[in-house]
Design a protein that fits this description.
Chain lengths: ~850, ~525
C-alpha cells in the first residue's frame, strides 16, 4: 500500500521584517495580528523522528485508562436514562432500588446539594432530570452499589411514571411560533445565532450570470472513541474530592464538579487518566458524569466509579450536529464568485453545550477559501428533543465544508468550467480580505500551493479525464475523482480567551519535569511538548517527564480543543524554557564566559532560532537545529551541554544545575502564552476571527458499481499546511485517522434517530471503517512556518478530518452524474437516481 | 460461583466467578490483567482480544466458565514479553503507529496470532486479519506497515510459534468471495427494539446461573431432559451478545417504561446453589469433544454440531466437499469470532442473515437431532419455522450436520453482498450449487439469506433455470426471477425493492461465474 512518504519543504518565503520588540523581549501579552511574517529562511525540515513517549505502555497494556483504576472499597454506579425523550416525570420511586441487596445509594435531582444545572457556555443542562426529560440521555437517577450487577439491578428496580410530551424533532418546527419550549425560561428554542453581512449581496447577485440555489444536509455522527466514559471519584479526608477519569478538559470537569458539589475549585482535583480517544466527545458529558459521581462519593464517603457501557455512552453522549445548509451562490461571466447567501441550521438537541462555537466557526468561514465580495450569512442552532449534539473534531466545519465544496463543484459544472480551474480563479490570495474584513497578511496563504501539490501527486489531469460521467466501464464500475478545499482558523479564535501556561522544573540530576495546561487526548501532545522541551534544553527526550494533567498542579491552559494543543502548549513551553535559561545565564557566564553584546538587536531576533535565549520564543518561527545567517548570540544547548556561541567553550548542564543548587536557585520556570489578539463584532459580523489559518485539500478516488450503486473509495489524499510538522510521523498519523473518520461522514456511519431516540447503540450497527475497508491513504505535508506557532507549527487534528466527505461526493458525481446533497449517502439512492 | 485454574501470561492463576461472566471481566477484575479493554462488549471492536489456548478470541464473548482448567491465556501484558511480541511492539513504536492506544492491546493479540500463523503476509491479508479490531484514531495505515515490517524481518521459522501454534487459515483466496468493498449501509432488524436473540431467555451473565458443562452427549441429554428450557451454550457468540446487551442497557430491550420488579426476581449473589428454580440454567456444550470434527462417509460429510467456523475454514475434506460452506465460514466475522462461533449455533440461532445456512440449504443438508430417547434426522429446510424460530424441542440438542459432498460435475459457491468479509452479518447472501449437462443447466439449487424471515431456497427460479442454456439473456431473466421470488421483510431501512434487486444481482453473478469458470464461455 502506498502511504504518504512525501514531505514537501516548499515554503514560499518572503523577507523578514524588522520586529517591534527588543532582543530579549518575551512577549506574554497579546500582540497585534498582522505585525509579522514568517521569519525563517532555509526551512530545512526539522524532522527528527520522535517516538511517542507514552506508546509502549499503551500497547503492552500497562497504561492506566480510567476503567483500569480501582480504589479500595469503591462502589460502582450506573445511570438510569430517560425512556422518553420528552416527558413529564410524574413518579420517580427509588425505594425499590434501595431494597436491592448491595445497593448503597440512589441519587436523584432532589438530592443535589448545590447547582442543579451545568454547562460550558450556558448552564442549561440538568445534572439529573427531576420533573421532566428532554432527551434520551437525560439521567434520572444514579445507583451506587457494591457491585455492578447490584447497581444495574437497582436501576432496573426504580419505578418511573412518564407523561409523554410532544417530541420536537425538527429544528425548523421548533422555531415556529407556538412550538413548545424546551427551556421555558429562555423564551425561545433558539440556542444561538450569528450573522455576517459583507458588501452588497443583492446588487452583487444582480451582476451574476449564473446563480445556483441548493440545500445540503448532514446527519448525526457518533465520536465512537473506543473507550466509553469512565471515572472514579475518591472523597478525601479533608472534604475534597479527587477525580480520575477519561476527561478531555480537566479544568472544565473541575468547574462542573465544584459547582455540583458546592465546593471551591481548590477542593476538587481532577487528574486525567490515559484517554482512549475523545475527538471532542469527552468535553462535557463526562464532566456531568464526574459531577454526579462526586456528589455520590461525598454522600457515601466511599470512592465511586462508573464505566459506561457502549450503549449508555451512545445514548447519553453528544453527537456531531446535523446541519441543514441552504446556499445561493452567484458567479459572473468570468467565473468569479460575486455573491453568496447562506443559511445554516444546526440541530442542537436539548442543551446548549458548545453549539454556539459549532455554528460560529462556519459563519466566519462561510465563503470557503474563496473571495466573494457580497455575502449574507445567517447561522443558528436550535433546541430539540433529538440526541444531544456538541463538539466533535471540526466544530461545524465538516458539515459546512460538505455544503460549500459541493456547491463549488456544482457551480463549476453549471458554468462548464473545470472544478480545479474554477477554484483557482476564486481562491484566497496573499493579503486578500475575507468576508469578515480580515486581511490575510500575517501568514502564508497557501491554499493554491496545497491544492496544486495534491493534484500533482494524484495525477489529477489524466484521472479527471477518464471519469465515468455516468457510464460504467467494462467491469461494471464507474470511476470518479473529486477534490475539496478549505481553510480553517486555528485555535479558539474570537470564540474564547486563548492562553496557556507551562512549568519546567529541573531536578537536581538535570532531569526535567514538564507540566502544560493542555492535555493529552491521544493526539500525541505529550510527545510534542516533550520534544519541544528536550530540543530546547539539548536533552534526550528520556530526560523529560511530561506529567499528566492534574488540575491541582498546573495552571488552566484553556480547553484542549480546536486543534490548539500544539500551538498554545508549545508556545508556553518555549516561554517557560526561555525563562529557565534566563535563570541559568549568569551561572553559565561565570563558568564559560559572558555572551557578546548583540550587533543589532532587531536583526538578531528576526532571524534567531528559538534554540537560544536570544529568540523570543513566543513568536519564533524557526527550527532549532538550523541557523544560517544572523547567527544567534545566545548559549547553545545540545547533547546535555551548554556551548558558548563564540568561543565554543562548553559546560555540562549537570554542572550548571549543581551550581544553581549552591546558589539556592530553585530551577522552576513558569511560562504563559497568550494568543495574538483576535476580535469579533457580533452585530456586523466583522473582525479578525482567528490569528492564523491552516489550508487543506483532499482528493478522493472512487468506483461506483452500476449493478448495486455501491461506492468504493479507493484512495484518499490529505494535503495540509500545518505550518511546520514538528513531528511529521505524528502529523501523518493524524491525517490518516482524520481522512478515515472524515470518510465516515459520507458513507458507512449513520446514527438514525426516530422520535428522538437513537436507533443504534453499539458498533454492530454504528459502523466505523475497518482495516480491510480503508482506502489507500496518503498524507502530504506542505510547510509554511507560521510566525505565531512554536517553531512555526499550527495545527492538524481537525483540518485532517473535515474534507473527505465532499471530496468523495464530488468524485461520485464525476463517476455517475449523481449529485449527493444529503449525508450519509445510500447505495440505493445512488442506484435509483443513476438509473433514471 | 465456580473456580478455575488457568495459566495466565505464563503463570498459574486461580479465579472464582459466576460461570457466565465474560472472560474479559474475569481477567480485568479478578486477575488484574487490565490490558484487554472493553470497547463494545459484543465482539465488534476487538479491544478485548486475547489468545485463549493459542487462538485469538474476543474475550468479552467467552463465558469464563467454559474456559477449562489448565487453559492458557495470553494478554498484551504477557505477549509483549515474548520474542515475537517484542518485535511487534517495537515495530509499532518505530512506525509511530499508536495514538490514543486503547485498541492496541487487542491489536497486539490479533497481530501475534496472525504473524505466527501466516507464512507470507501481505497488505491485504494483514488488513483482513485486523478486520475485527477497530481503531478510531489511526486510519490503520501505520499499523499495517508496522506488521508488514515485522513479517519482512522475520526470524527463522524454528523460533516462531511459542504460544500454541496451530495451522493457519487456508492460504490463498476463495474465488467465490468478492473483493473488499466499501462500507455498506446499515442493516436494521425487523424492529430495532427487538432483542437480537428472540429465542434466548434473558440472562444476566454477571449473576450466578446453574451452569453445567457435561463431558459427554449422554450427560448433556440427560440434563436437557431434566431441565427443559435450559439454555444451550455453544460458542456464545450469539447468546453472550444478547445477554450482555440486555444486561447493560435494559432500555434497548424496548421496555416502554420501567416498572418495579420484585427483588426476588434477581437473586443475590449469596443465594444458595440449591435454589435452581430461580436461577437461569445453562448447559455448556463446549466440553463435549464428540460434538466437534468432520468425517466423511459414503459421500456424506458429517460435521459435528460444535465445530467452529475457524475449523470449518481449515478442514481439507470440507474444502473439497463443501467449498461454499468453507467460503461462508471464512466470511463469518473476523478470526476471533470464528474461533468461538459454531456451526449449530449459527443454524439454531436461526437469523435470516446466518451465513452458514445458505450453503447447507443448496447442498440439501440435514440435521441429526438427539434427545434422551433417541435421534431424529430432519432436512435443514424443514428445521426453520419463522423469524428466529426452529422446530427444536426443549429437550433436544443438534448433534451432527450431514452434508452431501460435492460430486463430479457439480460446482458451488457463496457470496455476500456488501461483503464486509469480516464482522458483518450479511445484508444479502447467496449460495448456489449447479450441475451442467451437455451445455445446459441440469440441476441447480439457490439459497438466500436476509431476504425473508428465514434463510430460503428459491424453488421457482430453480425450476425455471432447469434445462436452460447459460446465455446473457438467461442471466437477464434470472435477475428478474429472483427479484420476483424473494420477499424481504418490508420495514427494513434498506428498502425492500433494493434488497430484491440486489438478490437478483448477487445470484446471477454467482451463477454466471460458476457456470463460466466451468465452460470458459458465456
Ligand atoms: C462480531 C460478530 C460478527 C459476526 N458475524 C457473522 C457473520 O458474518 N455471519 C454470520 O452468519 N454470523 C455472524 N455472527 C454470528 C455468529 O457468530 C453466530 O451465529 C454463531 O455461529 C453462533 O454460534 P455460537 O456457537 O457462538 O452460538 P451460541 O451463542 O452459543 O448459541 C446460539 C444459539 O444456538 C443454540 N445452540 C447452539 N448449539 C446448539 C446445539 N448443538 N443444539 C441446539 N441448539 C444449539 C443456542 O442455544 C443458542 O440459541 C457474528 C457474531 C459476532 C459477535
Ligand atoms: S469488547 Fe469489543 S470485541 Fe470484546
Ligand atoms: S489508537 Fe485510538 S483507537 Fe486505536
Amino acid at each position: 500500500m502506498d502511504i504518504g512518504r512525501l514531505q514537501l519543504g516548499t515554503s514560499r518565503l518572503r523577507p523578514a521584517r524588522p520586529r517591534d520588540h527588543s532582543r530579549r523581549g518575551i512577549r506574554i501579552g497579546p500582540h497585534r495580528a498582522g505585525s509579522r511574517l514568517p521569519a525563517r529562511r532555509g526551512s530545512a525540515t526539522v524532522t527528527v523522528m520522535v517516538q511517542r513517549v507514552d506508546a509502549v505502555e499503551k500497547v503492552t497494556g500497562r497504561a492506566l485508562f480510567a476503567d483500569d483504576i480501582v480504589a479500595e472499597g469503591m462502589l460502582f454506579a450506573v445511570p438510569l436514562h430517560a425512556a422518553h425523550p420528552h416527558a413529564r416525570i410524574r413518579v420517580l420511586e427509588t425505594a425499590p432500588a434501595v431494597e436491592v441487596p448491595g445497593v448503597v445509594a440512589v441519587l436523584t435531582a432532589a438530592d443535589l446539594p448545590a447547582a442543579t444545572r451545568l454547562g460550558t457556555i450556558v448552564r442549561d443542562q440538568y445534572i439529573l432530570a427531576g420533573d421532566r426529560t428532554r432527551y434520551q440521555g437525560d439521567v434520572l437517577a444514579v445507583v451506587a452499589a457494591e457491585t455492578e450487577a447490584a447497581a444495574r439491578a437497582g436501576a432496573a428496580a426504580i419505578r418511573v411514571d412518564y407523561q409523554p410530551l410532544p417530541v420536537l424533532t425538527d429544528p425548523q418546527a421548533a422555531l415556529a411560533p407556538g412550538a413548545p419550549l424546551i427551556h421555558e425560561e429562555r423564551g425561545t428554542n433558539l440556542i444561538a445565532s450569528y450573522r455576517v453581512r459583507d458588501g452588497d449581496p443583492a446588487r452583487a447577485f444582480a451582476t451574476c450570470t449564473e446563480i445556483l440555489e441548493r440545500e445540503y444536509r448532514t446527519s448525526w455522527i457518533e465520536h465512537a472513541y473506543l473507550e466509553p466514559e469512565s471515572a472514579i471519584v475518591t472523597p478525601e479526608p479533608d472534604g475534597s474530592v479527587t477525580v480520575r477519569g477519561s476527561v478531555q478538559l480537566p479544568f472544565n470537569a473541575r468547574r462542573f464538579i465544584a459547582q455540583a458539589c458546592g465546593l471551591p475549585l481548590s477542593r476538587v482535583r481532577v487528574i486525567q487518566a490515559t484517554l482512549g480517544g475523545s475527538f471532542g466527545g469527552k468535553d462535557e458529558t463526562i464532566n456531568l458524569i464526574c459531577a454526579r459521581l462526586a456528589v455520590l462519593a461525598l454522600r457515601t464517603r466511599r470512592p465511586v466509579k462508573s464505566t459506561y457501557s457502549r450503549e449508555e455512552s451512545m445514548r447519553e453522549s453528544y453527537k456531531r450536529h446535523p446541519f441543514l445548509v441552504r446556499s445561493r451562490l452567484g458567479v459572473d461571466a468570468n467565473g468569479k464568485m460575486q455573491a453568496l447567501d447562506i443559511e445554516m441550521t444546526a440541530d442542537g438537541g436539548p442543551y446548549c453545550t458548545s453549539s454556539p462555537f459549532v455554528i460560529w466557526r462556519p459563519t466566519v468561514q462561510c465563503t470557503g477559501p474563496y473571495v466573494v465580495p457580497g455575502v449574507r450569512c445567517d447561522t443558528r442552532a436550535v433546541y430539540t428533543n433529538n440526541p444531544l449534539t456538541g463538539a466533535m473534531r471540526g466544530f461545524g466545519s465538516p458539515q459546512f465544508n460538505f455544503a460549500c465544496e459541493s456547491m463549488v463543484d456544482e457551480m463549476a459544472h453549471a458554468i462548464g468550467l473545470d472544478p480545479v480551474e474554477f477554484r483557482r480563479r476564486n481562491f484566497f490570495t496573499q493579503g486578500c480580505r475575507t468576508h469578515t474584513g480580515q486581511h490575510l497578511d500575517n501568514h502564508t496563504v497557501s491554499i493554491r500551493q496545497v491544492m496544486e501539490t495534491a493534484l500533482e501527486r494524484t495525477g489529477w489531469a489524466e484521472k479527471y479525464a477518464r471519469c465515468g460521467r455516468g457510464t460504467p466501464g467494462p467491469d461494471g464500475r464507474a470511476y470518479g475523482i473529486g477534490l475539496a478545499c478549505c481553510y480553517r482558523g486555528v485555535s479558539l479564535g474570537a470564540e474564547g480567551a486563548d492562553f496557556c501556561s507551562a512549568i519546567v522544573h529541573v531536578q537536581p540530576d538535570a532531569s526535567v519535569l514538564l507540566q502544560v495546561g493542555v492535555s493529552e487526548n491521544g493526539q500525541g501532545l505529550k510527545t510534542a511538548m516533550t520534544h519541544i522541551a528536550a530540543t530546547e534544553l539539548g536533552l534526550p527526550a528520556s530526560q523529560i517527564r511530561f506529567l499528566d494533567t492534574d488540575t491541582s498542579h498546573v495552571p488552566d491552559g484553556g480547553p484542549t480543543v480546536a486543534s490548539r494543543g500544539t500551538i498554545v502548549g508549545g508556545n508556553a513551553v518555549l516561554i517557560a524554557v526561555a525563562r529557565l535559561k534566563e535563570m541559568l545565564e549568569p551561572l553559565i557566564a561565570e563558568r564559560i564566559g559572558a555572551l557578546p553584546e548583540p550587533r543589532d538587536a532587531t536583526e538578531a531576533t528576526a532571524a534567531g532560532p528559538p534554540g537560544t535565549t536570544a529568540g523570543p520564543p513566543a513568536t519564533a518561527a524557526g527550527p532549532p537545529t538550523t541557523g544560517t545567517g544572523g547567527e544567534p548570540a545566545g548559549y547553545r544547548y545540545t547533547g546535555g551541554r551548554i556551548h558558548h556561541p563564540v568561543t565554543g567553550e562548553s559546560i555540562a548542564l549537570n554542572e550548571v544545575v549543581a551550581a544553581a543548587a549552591e546558589h539556592r536557585l530553585y530551577l522552576q520556570a513558569f511560562g504563559s502564552w497568550a494568543a495574538p489578539r483576535v476580535s469579533w463584532d457580533e452585530e456586523r459580523g466583522r473582525g479578525h476571527a482567528y490569528f492564523t489559518y491552516v489550508y487543506s485539500c483532499n482528493v478522493a478516488e472512487v468506483t461506483v458499481e452500476a449493478a448495486t450503486g455501491k461506492v468504493r473509495v479507493t484512495r484518499l489524499i490529505g494535503a495540509h499546511d500545518p505550518g511546520r510538522a514538528i513531528n511529521p510521523e505524528m502529523v501523518r498519523g493524524q491525517i490518516y485517522g482524520g481522512l478515515l473518520m472524515g470518510m465516515g461522514l459520507a458513507l458507512g456511519e449513520h446514527y438514525p434517530v426516530a422520535e428522538g431516540i437513537g436507533q443504534v447503540g453499539n458498533f454492530d450497527r454504528y459502523r466505523i471503517c475497518r482495516a480491510h475497508q480503508a482506502p489507500e491513504l496518503e498524507a502530504l505535508i506542505i510547510e509554511n512556518p507560521d510566525p505565531a506557532g512554536p517553531w512555526g507549527a499550527k495545527s492538524i487534528g481537525e483540518p485532517a478530518n473535515e474534507l473527505a466527505a465532499p471530496a468523495i461526493t464530488n468524485a461520485i458525481f464525476h463517476a455517475t452524474g449523481v449529485r449527493i446533497r444529503s449525508l450519509p449517502l445510500q447505495p440505493e439512492e445512488i442506484l435509483a437516481r443513476w438509473q433514471r | 460461583m465456580i473456580t478455575r485454574q488457568w495459566q495466565v501470561n505464563g503463570e498459574m492463576r486461580e479465579a472464582t466467578f459466576p460461570a457466565l461472566k465474560p472472560l474479559l471481566h474475569v481477567l480485568r477484575e479478578e486477575l488484574a490483567a487490565t490490558g484487554p479493554k472493553e470497547g463494545c462488549g459484543e465482539g465488534e471492536c476487538g479491544a478485548c482480544t486475547v489468545l485463549l489456548n493459542g487462538q485469538p478470541v474476543t474475550s468479552c464473548l467467552a463465558a469464563a466458565g467454559q474456559v477449562r482448567d489448565g487453559s492458557t491465556i495470553w494478554t498484551a501484558e504477557g505477549l509483549a514479553r515474548l520474542p515475537l511480541g517484542e518485535r511487534i511492539v517495537d515495530a509499532f513504536m518505530r512506525h509511530g503507529a499508536v495514538q490514543c492506544g486503547i485498541c492496541f492491546p487487542g491489536m497486539l493479540a490479533t497481530t501475534y496470532a496472525f504473524l505466527r500463523d501466516e507464512p507470507a503476509p501481505d497488505d491485504r491479508s494483514t488488513r483482513e486479519a485486523l478486520s475485527g479490531n477497530l481503531c478510531r484514531c489511526t486510519g490503520y495505515s501505520k499499523i499495517v506497515a508496522a506488521i508488514l515490517d515485522v513479517a519482512r524481518e522475520r526470524e527463522p521459522a524454528g523460533s516462531r510459534g511459542r504460544v500454541g501454534a496451530q495451522p493457519g487459515p487456508p492460504a490463498g483466496e476463495d474465488p467465490t468471495l468478492e473483493t473488499l468493498d466499501a462500507l455498506e449501509t446499515l442493516e436494521t432488524p425487523p424492529s430495532p427494539a427487538a432483542p437480537r436473540a428472540a429465542s434466548a431467555p434473558a440472562i444476566d451473565p454477571r449473576e450466578p446461573a446453574a451452569f453445567y458443562a457435561p463431558r459427554t452427549l449422554d450427560e448433556a441429554l440427560a440434563l436437557r431432559a431434566r431441565r427443559p428450557g435450559a439454555a444451550l451454550l455453544a460458542g456464545g457468540s450469539d447468546l453472550l451478545v444478547a445477554w450482555q446487551a440486555a444486561a447493560r442497557e435494559p432500555l434497548l430491550r424496548g421496555a416502554p417504561s420501567r416498572t418495579a420488579r420484585p427483588a426476588a426476581d434477581r437473586p443475590a449473589e449469596t443465594a444458595a446453589a440449591e435454589a435452581p428454580c430461580q436461577r437461569p440454567v445453562v448447559i455448556s456444550l463446549s466440553d463435549i469433544d464428540a460434538l466437534r470434527g468432520v468425517a466423511e462417509e459414503d459421500g456424506v460429510l458429517r460435521i459435528g454440531a460444535c465445530t467452529s467456523a475457524y475449523e470449518l475454514c481449515t478442514n481439507p475434506s470440507l474444502a473439497r466437499g463443501a467449498p461454499a460452506l468453507v467460503a461462508a465460514a471464512h466470511a463469518l466475522g473476523a478470526r476471533p469470532i470464528r474461533h468461538l462461533a459454531t456451526l449449530a449455533g449459527n443454524l439454531v440461532n436461526a437469523s435470516p442473515a446466518a451465513d452458514l445456512a445458505p450453503p447447507l440449504l443448496v447442498a440439501g443438508a440435514g440435521l441429526l437431532i438427539a434427545k434422551a430417547g433417541g435421534t431424529r434426522k430432519i432436512p435443514l429446510e424443514d428445521f426453520y419455522r419463522g423469524y428466529k424460530e426452529t422446530n427444536l424441542g426443549p429437550d433436544e440438542i443438534v448433534t451432527v450436520v450431514l452434508v452431501p459432498a460435492l460430486v463430479a460435475g457439480e460446482r458451488e459457491g457463496f457470496r455476500k453482498l456488501g461483503t464486509r468479509r469480516a464482522q458483518s452479518i450479511a445484508k444479502v447472501c447467496a449460495a448456489v450449487r449447479v450441475r451442467l449437462d451437455a451445455g445446459r443447466i441440469d440441476a441447480v439449487a439457490i439459497a438466500l439469506g436476509s431476504v425473508a424471515p428465514t434463510t430460503v431456497r428459491l424453488p421457482r427460479t430453480e425450476e425455471r433455470l432447469r434445462s436452460e442454456r447459460p446465455t446473457a439473456a438467461l442471466w437477464e431473466r434470472t435477475r428478474q426471477w429472483v427479484a420476483e421470488e424473494v420477499h424481504p421483510i418490508s420495514d427494513v431501512r434498506s428498502n425492500a425493492d433494493y434488497r430484491r434487486a440486489m438478490a437478483g444481482v448477487l445470484v446471477t453473478d454467482l451463477l454466471a461465474s460458476l457456470v463460466c469458470s466451468e465452460h470458459g464461455a458465456q
